[in-house]
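FIELD: query
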Amino acid sequence: MPKREPGDVGNEVEASAGAGPVQGRAWEVVRLIGQGFGRNEIARMTGVAPATVSRIAQRNGLSFDRTQTEKALKARITDLNLRQAGLAESLADRVAIAIAYLDASASYRDYAFASKAISDLTQSYMRMKPQITEDDTVEDAKNFLTDLRDTITQVVDGFEAQHGVAFDSEEARQIIKQQTQEENSDEQP
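FIELD: result
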């Protein structure tokens, strides 16, 4: 494979602009942009200059949307937290095994080794166990309420579009009451 010069990535971009698929490291840059990485982070990961990363994005009709980057970061953090929780669970299982060895120890030496293993595993478990903070709980509640609001808005808009009446009108109440009665009569044997 021929040696690439720093300007070759720019040439990949020039060659790919409107002339077919993106090639080489430029393709990697496009992939990372799609995953929500920021320009500087992509530059560090690929060894491509930040200005070239911006040109690749521009030539491919992509942009560095902060909300997209934040969503991708939150998703990666969530994935890491899940892995950490899995490791902590594995450590908890190993603590149980070490306790079984402690119970079955026949000599002081075996007892000491099992005790040390339990101590080390327990400390590792405590460090690995994800900590749920009040901020996490508040953020989860905000996300839930935002999703609930969006769902309610969709239901209201759908109802109004289907029936042609405002959701908070007396006509809407009559329609809902009639639908509820029909559903209840269908459920009874």
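FIELD: remark
Residues 1-7, 9-22 have pLDDT under 50 and may be disordered.
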